[in-house]
Amino acid sequence: MSSTTLSLRGVTRRFKDTIALNSLDLDVAQGELVALLGPSGCGKTTALRIIAGLDRPDEGAVLVGGQDVSHLPPNKRNMGMVFQSYSLFPNLTAAENVAFGLTMRNENKRSRLNRAQELLEMVGLPKHSKRFPHQLSGGQQQRVALARALAFEPDVLLLDEPLSALDAQVRANLRDEIRALQLKTGTTTIFVTHDQEEAMAMSDRVAVMNQGKIAQIARPDELYHNPSDEFVAGFVGQMNRIPVSIEGHLANLLGQQISYRSDWAGASANPLALVRPEDLTVSTVESAEHGNARVLARAFLGPLSKVSLELVNGIEISALMTSAHSQGFQPGDSVAVTAAKREYLVVAG
Amino acid sequence: MKFLSPRQLPLTIGLLVAAIFVFFPLISAGEFSLREPLKQTHGFDNYVWFFTAPDFGKYLGISFGLAVLSALILLVILVPTVIWLNLGGARFRGFVEFISLLPLVIPVVALAIGAQTALPDFAQTNEVILAFMFAVLAMPYAYRTLDTGLRSIPLKTIVEAARGLGASWFHTIVRVVIPVVRSTVTSALFMTLALSLGEFTLTSLLHWDTFTTWVTTMSQSNILGAISLSVFSLVAVFVLLLAISIFIRPTSNTVAQEEN
């Protein structure tokens, strides 16, 4: 295992008038898997390409194990990369593809083939060593690409949306396999994705990127429950935006006094609390005047159900609850909605 | 007995007409080349005549040598250029396409006169100049063949993957790019060889002698022999290209059942 730390220091990249990366700082610990998550154009793939050496930063540095590698070409950086599109060499067999990095490092043939077979077994393709890429399915090709990227024990593994071309079932399986393999090899890994579920499920930490910067980097649960600002809150998971009235250090949300965090400076005429659907409690009421919302619809999602509600002020929100609990609500019912947590992020409306 | 469906009929008729259009003249030429009027029969006298002609081997050798050289010149120039265009030089694509089209719009006479007036004496006194001129003539076809082939594969990703795995630029080109684009390069090679072997106008205007000009000269004294030579040239080029295609065919194209 040759895993090591990775750091980006003030990395900036401009394309004509567009700033793709804006003084980006990132520290990844040895053996850690960090996901770069964000919408299209946020700079996540540019960051990955700069780490790999496939693009050069206009400013800033890339440090691997404390050493500045910014000036090194990609073939001198000892990093493994798996691409979004299938990138196996079509003229080589699966085993030859996996062994390619070792060939470039002048390993002898026997050790190359042994290592290739070992890696193919690790990714569950021990009998596919002599197959050419066009004889493999998409999922198998990405497994071979992963084996190829790990075969020469890279300092850092870079994954550029490796699952996005695959169908849902293969994608879910491979997601778990990649994580298991990363934990087994202990390779420091950067994983670029625009799929929040993927990022949350696979990563030690998730860095949410917006406009060339990291908006927040945190453990998946922390990111979900304590988003730093409105962008992160809106990008990761579903969020209701419910009007509140500010009363000093407290806010009044659905008739309850709550404490709040805020990402805006100064007063706002229409402050809104950002509330997750599962952080709302819905209960039946005896009569309409005791409730503060009306049930619009109910969607069955398996063990959970989503109930759409209309507040008395006309705002539509949704609440997530167990399907068993949701049985008690029918469209048109008056209900009481309360906040389950004592603190929420409040933003300017 | 199975009959053609109404949907297949137009296609079948079209193919038949095309086949007649292509093969009928060839078969006729073949038959004509075997005629021996004095004996009122068919035979190989006309073929024996040109095979035993004193300069047959010499001019065939010259034409073949020039064709190989022109193909090499064109590939050495075009393969790196088209790879570069597909990797990062896309903004120059329009300019390169314009240049590659010029040989199609400039008359061969103009090219010949340009070569005679602009090139230095040492270039004009060596028939190798023809190989360079043939390369220019074949450029529009070879460029498009190469560019279309390279655009059909994810070249940029493959190159970046190779670089990321530790390959230098040299190893990336030699071990990854060239093998991947081999069939495309082969197609471009065929184009250039075929065009060079059959080129007559430019050679004649520049006052050089190759196999094609020799055939023309010979045809003035023996029309049946000239037809035999033409048929022979056609078959020889076909066999040559077939041999090359077999020689540089990809190692494996076996498609197995996909496992999911």
What can you tell me about this protein's structure?
The complex is a heterodimer of chains A (349) and B (260). Chain A has 349 residues and is of the alpha+beta class. Chain A has helices at residues 44-52, 94-104, 109-122, 138-151, 168-185, 196-202, 220-225, 230-235, 323-326; strands at 6-15, 18-28, 33-37, 59-64, 67-68, 79-82, 156-160, 188-193, 205-210, 213-218, 240-243, 245-247, 250-253, 256-262, 272-275, 280-284, 293-300, 304-311, 316-322, 334-339, 343-347. Chain A has two domains: 6-234, P-loop containing nucleotide triphosphate hydrolases (Rossmann fold, 3-Layer(aba) Sandwich); 238-347, Beta Barrel (OB fold (Dihydrolipoamide Acetyltransferase, E2P)), CATH 2.40.50. Chain A contains nine helices and 21 strands. A six-stranded mixed beta sheet of chain A has the order 6-7-8-3-9-10, sandwiched between helices. In chain A, strands 11-15-21-14-13-12 form a six-stranded mixed beta sheet, with no helix packed on it. A five-stranded antiparallel beta sheet of chain A has the order 16-20-17-18-19. In chain A, helix 2 (94-104) packs across helix 3 and helix 3 crosses helix 4. The longest helix of chain A is centred in the middle third of the chain and has 18 residues, at 168-185. By secondary structure, chain B is mainly alpha-helical. Chain B has one domain (56-247): Orthogonal Bundle (MetI-like fold). Chain B has helices spanning 8-33, 45-51, 56-87, 93-105, 108-118, 121-124, 129-151, 155-164, 169-180, 182-198, 201-205, 211-219, 223-247; strands at 35-36, 41-42. Chain B has a two-stranded antiparallel sheet. The longest helix of chain B has 32 residues, at 56-87. Chain B starts with 7 loop residues before the first helix and ends in a 13-residue tail after the last helix. At the A-B interface, strand 6, helix 2 and helix 4 of A face helix 8 and helix 9 of B.
